[in-house]
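A.,

Following up on our hallway conversation. Structure tokens first:
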């Protein structure tokens, strides 16, 4: 075991504070990674405050991890000491169910070992995330990271990136499609970059006029202020896809009207409460609602390689570890462009 510095929440009301955890010895199939950067995801806040229920404490959040390999087990074939590596939202899964076999480990039907707030496959060893200086993960669940991109901007690709890349690919979004991105935050800004890069005509739908300039800088072709009735009326029956990234409670209905016949609303945000969708929103023009959660290991690697080839990274504000509680407060006010990333040198 290796004692490792981290930041943890001790319960659902405590702030995050320094905490020591143990990482396992490097096994034959493991890589040991010196964590350089870890992105801060909205789900870190939800889970450390037990807003989804069932949280496991003490909790070390963080599932957007990039770093350099310090050690590898003697059976490891894909990684060498000194290379960059990434860890996303999960560190293991059952490996035998239909979804695991199909490369859809994120939808493991038996037991997904999330990177934190979960258990290893033994069902009892808690997993601890990337707000820490070191992590040990099986090479099967470790991603290769290019040296070509600024590393802090790569970290959020491991969650915000794959969460938006995967459904856009699944839906074959590309040239000839009009795509709306609802909400311009951590997920939304990545969705705009990917959809534009895939050749779609991209519109940002936002409640905030101040986002227009940024939306265009990120690659959006159009901007619609959702509180403006005439602007909304102009895009009625207009979009092939709406990628809904909003994680606050809201009604889907006004946006379903913006979809064309056969249009699809893709849900990637996770509002705390259920919403209702009138049947006529779907049946009147054969519309669909599609959900999607992160991506499998192979697809996450494909996304990282795509980003390296197309120079796509997340827009980030790099912070020191002790700033994390302030960062959470600012995220609750949407006061970040567009992802906080912790420089883990500040914890060493
Ligand atoms: Zn996340
Ligand atoms: Zn499985």
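Then the amino acids I'd put at each of the 348 positions:
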């Amino acid at each position: 075991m290796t004692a490792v510095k981290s930041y943890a929440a001790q319960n659902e009301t405590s702030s995050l504070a320094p905490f020591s955890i143990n990482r396992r010895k490097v096994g034959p199939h493991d890589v040991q990674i010196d964590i350089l950067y870890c992105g801060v995801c909205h789900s870190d806040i939800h889970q450390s405050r037990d807003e989804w229920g069932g949280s496991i404490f003490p909790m070390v959040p963080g599932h957007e991890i990039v770093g350099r390999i310090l050690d590898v087990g003697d059976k490891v074939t894909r990684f060498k000491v000194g290379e960059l590596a990434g860890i996303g939202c999960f560190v293991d899964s059952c490996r035998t169910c239909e979804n695991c076999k199909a490369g859809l480990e994120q939808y493991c039907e038996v037991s997904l070992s999330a990177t934190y707030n979960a258990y290893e496959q033994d069902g009892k060893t808690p997993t601890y995330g990337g707000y820490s200086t070191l992590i040990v993960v099986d090479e099967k669940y470790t991603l290769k990271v290019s040296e070509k991109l600024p590393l802090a901007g790569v970290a959020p690709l491991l969650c915000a990136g794959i969460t938006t890349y995967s459904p856009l690919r699944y839906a074959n979004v590309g040239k000839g499609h009009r795509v709306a991105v609802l909400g311009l935050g951590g997920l939304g800004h990545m969705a705009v970059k990917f959809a534009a890069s895939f050749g779609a005509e991209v519109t940002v739908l936002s409640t905030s006029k101040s986002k227009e300039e940024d939306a265009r800088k990120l690659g959006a072709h159009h901007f619609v202020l959702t509180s403006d009735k005439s602007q909304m009326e102009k895009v009625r029956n207009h979009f092939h896809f709406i990628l809904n990234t909003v994680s606050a409670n809201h009604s889907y209905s006004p946006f379903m009207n913006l979809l064309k016949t056969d249009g699809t609303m893709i849900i990637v945000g996770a509002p705390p409460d259920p919403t209702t969708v009138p049947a006529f929103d779907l049946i009147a023009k054969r519309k669909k609602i599609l959900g999607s959660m992160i991506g499998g290991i192979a697809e996450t690697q494909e996304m990282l390689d795509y980003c390296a080839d197309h120079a796509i990274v997340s827009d980030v504000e790099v912070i020191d570890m002790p700033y994390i509680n302030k960062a959470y407060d600012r995220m609750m006010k949407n006061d970040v462009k567009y992802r906080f990333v912790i420089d883990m040198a500040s914890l060493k």
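The pocket of zinc ion (ligand 1) is lined by residues 41, 43, 63, 89, 159 (CB under 6 Å). Curious whether your intuition agrees with the design.

B.
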